[in-house]
Amino acid sequence: MIGCMRLIVDADPGIDDALAFYYLKAQADTEIVAIGTVHGNVPVRQATVNALRLAERLGIDAPVAMGAARPLAQPLKTAEDVHGADGLGGFAGDEPTRVHTAGESAAEQIARLARANPGELSLLAIGPLTNVALAVQIEPELPRLLDRTVVMGGALGVPGNITSHAEANFWHDPEAADLVLDAGFEDLTIVGLDVTMASHAPGEWLEALPESGYPRQILGFYADFYGSFLGKAGFVPHDPLAAAILVDPELATYVEDRFAIELTGTYTRGKLVADQRFLAEGSPFGRDIGTGRSTARYAVSADNARFLDRLRDAVTQP
Ligand code: BDR
Ligand code: CA
User: Fold this and answer.
1) Measured distance CA(241)–CA(247) in Å, rounded
2) Is the distance from the beta carbon of residue 192 to the nearest atom of ligand 1 less than 6 Å?
3) What is the residue-wise DSSP string for 45-78?
4) What is the pTM of this model?
5) Cα(254) to centroid of ligand 2, in Å?
6) d(CA 33, CA 62)
7) Is 238 a catalytic residue?
8) Whose CB among 11, 221, 252, 263 lies 3.0–4.6 Å from 299's, allowing a Cys bridge?
């Protein structure tokens, strides 16, 4: 990478969100300039306090703006069964000394920073896309003002993790996710379950982490959930993989397509869908999904060994 990547992180911390912050903090030439929080794994107030705690713990000197408390068009549902009642596996710890930004929402923060720094900031969204969708409403030019945008969400060719078909971040706010996919982002990468499930960190990886370290502590609850969900020891580092792919796009391979979110399906609401005719090279058929949408890249494979080594280095840094 040439120069320093400056980024806004939009998150719902969240145990794997916490690991994404560790990952980013450990990268040379990567600077988190602002953090936004969103409902998802926990209610947004809890996500905000957790983001402040993590920023403090990791020495990330970026403002934290509180974002959307609920999805655009459905009731709030959270995922304490995966992340614990406090969102950090029971180890959230003391109240932070810092407070979130007064008088500016996470969406307003994204829009303001993007306008002030055209082409200079990238965005990593590792929670439901409510804030990003609202930021596009505030600033329709957002997709052209940002440099790169990487989103963790979706399950294209694999089962969902919150319903049979849908991945959690997109399912938590399907309308917001669809709005983002339709907003014309010039450089959009989607990191979904097709790659994150395959990046599973086995039990031995976890056990090799220092026992008294914070990452190991918070991962206990998350690993218990994934252990019973998958029937094998370990956990799935969804959000840190998205962070890693943002920092080093060559860590993954991609298909390029037009994407939409199923908004009305009886069993499939919240599912990411691609124009499968677009995927079939030379297809004589017309485009039936996302006509008029710009394309995005969807990650289909990743170098998991390299990623897990980098993640271990990031979470074991002094
Ligand atoms: C996504 O949902 C949340 O549980 C995780 O933090 C991650 O962002 C994975 O589907
Ligand atoms: Ca998350």
Assistant:
1) 10
2) no
3) HHHHHHHHHHHHHHT----EEE--SS-SSS----
4) 0.96
5) 21
6) 5
7) yes
8) 252
